[in-house]
Amino acid sequence: MTATVTDPPSTPSCLVRHTVQTSVTIRDTFAETKAMAWRALIKMRRTPEQLVDVSFMPLMLTVLFGFMFGGAISGNTASYLPVLIPGIVAMSTISACVAAGTQLREDMNKGVFDRFRSLPIARISPLAGPMMADLVRYALAASVTITMGMIMGYRPGGGALGVAGGVLLAVITGWSLAWIFMWLGTFAKNAGSVQGMSMMIMFPLAFVSNAFVPVNTLPGWLRTLVRVSPVSHVVSALRDLMNKGAVTMQVGWALAGCAAVAAFFVPLAVRSYSRQA
Amino acid sequence: MSSRPPPGIPRPGAERARSGASAEGADLAVNAHGLVKTFGTNRAVDGIDLSVAEGEIFGILGPNGAGKTVTLRMLATLLPIDGGEARIFGYDVRTQPHAVRQLIGVTGQYASVDEDLTGRENLWLFGRLQGLSSRQAHRTADDLLEKFHLTEAADRPLSRYSGGMRRRLDLATSLITKRALVFLDEPTTGLDPRTRGQMWETIRDLVADGCTILLTTQYVDEADELADRIALFDRGRKVAEGTPGELKAQVGTSSLRVQLADRVVARAAAALAAVVAHAPPDVAPAGTGFTVALSDASQATDVLIALRQHNIDIANVTIEKPSLDEVFMTLTGHPSGTPTWGPETSEA
Questions:
Q1: Minimal CA–CA distance to B166: which of B97, B118, B111, B220?
Q2: Of A14, A47, A114, the CB nearest to B78
């Protein structure tokens, strides 16, 4: 071979527009991600039943937990709500992320992903696109929970700004944690197995936290576990924002936790996805 | 299996590319050596060499499980290559997949379009993903819908498309931006004859535009009809390669089929023909006639004259050319339409 590998001598005649590039620019990546997000949003609109887990689920949880545990934990429902609502917001955004993985798997098993893989697009676009669209889901889950809480008598002390901050934090949390499930989706055999694995991660993550119960009622070892859980930090941060309107240290910890999860799982998911490409 | 230099009738594109080449193999659209793909213990593709010149239609023909699709998917960067090396227009498939993806278009065996979107939405999406602006993508979508007779169905969801419409949309999607090399994996499997004919036309148009086509098929007539050169695959190996004419020549020339007016003399007549043609005849089961292979066409006259001289009356005479089917049968011991039984078929 005399020619360099990056510059073959023959330029195919059928090639009208392209000069061969070695990598995808950030701008192209963003445009591709937006196109993929558009695709996911269209699907969401066509199959509204996909939104059940971010509308009816949080609604039911709020009502059930509020009336059933309110008396036992805080004396009555009204005084439990400031503790409960931020907990349910966290819990329902976390369970909403699970769908990211199952949907990716279902998608990847379809023929259309062959085409995505055969295109000269950034490997992250087919993953980042749906993630962008899912922001709508997390915002919806958080809003439904807060609205239902307010109907039941919850009066957030943080005011409109505090609540908006809470919703924003919930959306960031959902986006970051969804990469864990996205990663599972890249290598699992089918949507069912993603669902199974996700539940095993999601339940301990959501329940081994201060989301529903005061930490001081727990046995010592569990208390330690709950205190280090990133979800606990998110729940505490949500309480600070929504109930007090205060941007506390907990908010910082929650954001740092989200950033750490994303920093770890984004490359993992993209690498696992590319390996199959 | 040694890879032969590309014979046959080179198209203008191929000619030009070959003369301008300085590096070995860089003038080739596809240049692969010793490709291997294993699934567990099963070698689905077992040392395949392929060279496809620019501007030709190259057909990979073989039964289900022969390794056609797996080979194509490896070349299209969709499956990791386990052994050997492959270059597309000089770019290494393994180490430069991003460059390769800018040169190829892939149309899969099962429609690789989005089932949940409409035809128009599919074309727009893939236009955007290939760097077109939103407006350009809309315009290209309109043009392609028109060209592929899908304008009426443009805003219908794909679930209401027929198989043929889906396949047309699939091919249209591959042509949003012109790609130098288009992979077609069984482009007409499951299509009715009319749609099949349309697909063949489209494929020929592509080549007229200067594209190179690598297609797989299990239909002998499709390979015969479309391909400049054909590689026969069986159980993960290439068993033969050449132009359709060269391959047919491998199983001898034509044969003469004679139907007799009087079936009593069939055996005697066949024996006579055997002496004249120097080949063992094949007497029809009902004794209505016989078939004999000819080493050259003029022997047909000799046989017929001999029959006349012996006062044997003839009802009908046909000269049959060998078909690719026979080539396949001769080289692999089984017809091309049937799957090769064995571990190959267990592969997904």
A1: B111
A2: A114
